[in-house]
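Today's session is about reading a structure prediction critically. Students often jump straight to the picture, but the first step is always the sequence itself: look for stretches that repeat, for charged clusters, for runs of hydrophobic residues. Only then move on to the predicted structure, which in these notes is written as discrete structure tokens rather than atom positions. Here is the chain we will use throughout the hour.
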Amino acid sequence: MSILLRNRSWRLWLAGLFMLVTWLVTGPAAYATHLRAGDIQAKTDTTAARNPRRIFFKMVLYTSAEPSSADEPNVNIYFGDNTCATGSNAIPRFGNRQRISPDTYRNVYYFEHTYNSPGTYEVIYLNNFRVSGVINMFNSIGTPFKISTRVTIDPFLQNTSPVLQAAPIDRAAVRQVFLHNPAAFDADGDSLAYELRPSQQAPTPPACTVVATDVAGFRYPNDPALGGNPRQVAYVGPPVGVPDDPAIFVQNPRTGQITWNSPALQGVYNIAFVVKEYRRIPGAKARLIGEVVRDMQIFVQATTNQRPTIVVPADICVVANTPVPNGVVTATDPDNNPILLEAFGGMLPRPASFTQTSQGPPTARGVFQWTPTCADIRQEPHQVLFKATDVPVAGQVPLIDQRVWNITVVGPAPQNLRAALQGSTARLDWDSYSCPNPGAQMLIFRRENSYPFTPGPCETGLPAAAGYVQVGSVGVGSRTFLDDNNGKGLDRGKTYCYRIYVQFASPGLGASIASNEACVTLSGRSARLTNVTVDRTDAANGQITVRWTKPTSTAGFGPSRGYRLFRATGLNPAAAAFTQVYTSTNLEDTTFVNAGLNTTANTYTYRLDFYNVAVAGAAEAVEVAGPASSVRVTGTPNPTANSIALAWTYQVPWDNTKRPTTIYRRENTAGAFRPIAKVTGTATGGTYVDQGTVGGPLVKGRTYCYYVKTNGTYDATRPDSLINLSQEQCVSLLTIPCTPVLTLKPTNCDSLASRLFDLPVTPLGGQVYSNSLSWTLSSLPTADCSRDIVSYIIFYAATDADPLQELTRVPGTQTTYLHQGLTSAQGCYAVQAVDANGAVSALSNKECKDNCLLFLLPNIFTPNGDGKNDTFRPKVFSPIERTAVKIFNRWGVKVYESDKDPLINWTGGGSGSEGNSAGRVSDGMYFYQAEVEFKDANRTKRTFKGWVQINR
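Below is the predicted structure for this chain, in token form.
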């Protein structure tokens, strides 16, 4: 087929594009190729004269041992702060390179850097060239190799990045599952997360700032576009293989295990992954403090050898200073080949050990032994990677299986907790703790009455259902704690039970098993509040009666004894808000009538002190009862459902859930109240929806008044009915306004796009938009909804994802609105109606409008400084978020690139052979590629290509 190109400009465009693509995908015939894999590790300064801005680094590179491959005795490092070690300052290799296989050297480089200020920095190694023939990228022989690590400079942070113990060179077999685990170990106990990434490259920067991109043509190894029809094979997992399903290449985000099920083509592959390091902070979100990006290489070969199968123990938890049990690892090989067993972990080779006792066949066997110490306690499990590699006959490819064993180390339980009374204070004592790690805290927990809890073998802390509340903490080196209930003393007549456990410090965190339970019982019973009941509802002369019980014993209190009653406004007032309203030294006087209150609007809360007067040589003794609030009821009308929803709240020391709450109602503001329902409340309140009855429904236009009566108890087995009344609450059941139906005038984007060349030039500051709204009233939510509208509320949001906010209000006679002066046509609207009673309708339908996608670049501009057409910018455009433009000359050489200006505004400046002494490109034809991200709802991205003529 042939295509006749009648337009010379388009012929030039295609010729230039062809030359550009050719330049991008080809390279010199030969390079000193050598780079296979590598990673960079970092560690903050831990020397005696610690400088938190000083970082030590170790980089390991894996290079080709082929005879024609280059050596790299010195490397260029870019520190992420606009400084670098290059040229004569390049970092030398530590010692000689080490040959770890017939085709690979291991190279180690040590260096350090001191940063000027706190922050996050990416440290980069960059060099040409990768080894040739990597299948899953374009032109690997001419592609730069980039690895990095990200460090956080913080004066309060000490950190060592994870060490990847398994080499990043591995072998796989066609049509067999490939596994790789980096065997990462973090000495600080930070949490690690893993994520696959494409391999990266970057041109050698002219200064010290690297701009990296994914390597050209990168594809993950399972991509069917690479050929070979990659499919899965049977595998026990995880993840479980599904034979003949499309191949997978995945990395477990927690263990780092890479699974490729399964390779289809022989050859060399490179991939990268990042190890993210999170520092856990108690009570806060984990903080990302570092990243290590490793680029690794996989050799895939065809073989008849079959993978071995390894079996490791089930994940386990052990108490510090206790040997890890059952550390037997076995492996078998379907070809009856001998098997080499290996183990990787932060505790290996010391203090732990792994000894292979048999290579098989039939069964290879090894024993892992480790007694973790107190220093090994942490929240995250210790991971031990076990690897089985078969030893096939000569000429066959060795294959592996590997599994991770998770070992969680917890703190031992505190021993011999004891509790004893000292007056109204409980003294706790326990034995010296066996793991006094720096920064660890002994947490003290208390509950009323005993709880039969026996921790599991490694169950740390206390379950939430146990009902223990933390009442204090002390350093792990302490052996005693006094519980005086925050100075108020423990209540008489109650049994208090305690447990303790240790919370270990960041970064490792972790906890201990809880201690035994220890209890104390206080005899007698203190005074108790029993009633806070509303007698009269009034804004100025409301009345509440407060009652309490007399203490059953006055032991510990001197002869000058009495009550002090305090009051505060609100349901949960602060301690400082209480003021004294009553005092009495008559212990039989247990009632107070509090008048002159605004019970219409307020809840009131009371607190009672039983005290004795201080005398010389003795402090005042005080027992506190309460606080206890009045019951507060509210009502919300629902004209749509012809109902009224009631809700009541309280904060009281007795239990209102054991006996029902009664709801009373009367019509209008006079007449007798009658009970209409009984419901069971909660610890803090209750709800009820009054819908009337079938024979007597609620009527719109009428007012209904309510109060509720709670019936509480301190002990449901005793007949102590604690009756308390709420205030009276009246609610009018009015009709509601009809719901508006909104229309938003649309823009015909298709019509504008078809007339793009005929549209006027968009102003430099962008188009100014207006949105036209109109609405009518529906017959919803009910046919009798109110049409007596006095105003409309118009709501607006800039995008559909943003919440609607009130924009303006217009009179009830107006049913249109023009929203003007907008920099974007995008927006969402809704309307509410307000009637003469002040009632507000339901929100109308929400109507949204989006920006059109308009973009037109000219074919000529004249950058001659006359102020007319001096820049290359769009002639017509709708709102734009970002534009990334590249300009090429007729030979396909890029002369300009930028993404800083959404409107491009290229002045004709350039670089390279096309740039003259004034830094300008020559007159002539150029080709552009503009990737435009519009400010529409979807942030649509479109690519525009074309040519432009420069005439000066």
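Discussion point for the tutorial: Helices lie at 8-25, 749-754.
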